[in-house]
Amino acid sequence: MDEELNTTYVTLDGYIEVNKYRYVYFCIIFTLYIIIICSNSTIVYVIWIHKNLHEPMYIFIAALLLNCLLYSTNIYPKLLIDFLSEKQVITYSACLFQFFMFYTLGSSEFFLLAAMAYDRYVAICKPLEYPTIMNKTTVIIFLVVSWLIPAVHIAIQAIASAEATLCNFNLKGIFCNNAVYSLQCQRSRLIIIFGVIALLDLVILPMLFIVFTYTTIFIVSCQSCKEIRKKAAETCLPHLLVLISISCLSIYDVGIARVESDFPKVARLLMTLQLLLYHPLFNPFIYGLKMKEISKQLKRFFCHATIITCINANVP
């Protein structure tokens, strides 16, 4: 009982007329969540079962889509519960855990995209050395680093926030992102310093590396034959589309934390929804349609599934 009394609750104050449209909101978000789960899981499964897709580039794509699944699962179930609840609240400890997962998984995307960029650089600029450089050990190291480094950075922020004194218990949002800092009486110097370090290490440096790598690939491709240029365009374009998407979403997220308290609630909600919908929803379609090998295997997979369904339907 004492433990319940000492639990700190935060009100999620970003919803608009949730009592009036709760079932509409629930149906829309539930449908989108099912689409995200099915689309991302299908491509991950296709990559897993086909040995010809067990190459570094496709392994990184599978890791990115798995990241999208975890990213969505961190937020969508809580949204669905809130739509059906009379009060949209969350404990402060659960809020910080959601904050930790949100930024860890979000930052991991930049590292995975950086790993993909390096993979494409080696494949196009150093094709003879590709099997030696991009071996199994290298891929494992990239994957571990992509999830471990963001987790360590964000854990420091979350732990420091857990120790902070709260003066406000209304969070202007529908989930816990960096708006949690607005709950604190005063942001500590540790949080400010590590916030800058995290932004530099987890976003800016990976982005600079990606831009530099693709610039090098572009220069080499322009100096090469038509076949190399075609290969570069086919394999690099999806990664660049995803990079542009996640970069825009990062700007949205920073903007949400920086806007004034009198910023229109509808506009704030629309900005927040960008973080939840575009990235996990469109990534599987970008890779499923633009990556030739994945697209081919997906067509075979759905044709096979359709045939099996028809046969089962005709069996008495």
From TrEMBL:
Cellular localisation: Cell membrane
A GO cellular-component term linked to this record: plasma membrane
UniProt keyword Signal present: no
Transmembrane segments: 23-48, 57-76, 96-118, 139-160, 190-220, 240-257, 269-289
Gene3D superfamilies associated with the record: Rhodopsin 7-helix transmembrane proteins
Record's keyword terms, sorted: Cell membrane, Disulfide bond, G-protein coupled receptor, Glycoprotein, Membrane, Olfaction, Receptor, Sensory transduction, Transducer, Transmembrane, Transmembrane helix
Membrane-related topology note: Multi-pass membrane protein
Cited Pfam families: 7tm_4 (PF13853)
Residue ranges of domain G-protein coupled receptors family 1 profile in the record: 39-287
Gene Ontology terms for molecular function: G protein-coupled receptor activity; odorant binding; olfactory receptor activity
Family: Belongs to the G-protein coupled receptor 1 family.
Name used for this protein in its record: Olfactory receptor
Species, as recorded: Maylandia zebra (zebra mbuna)
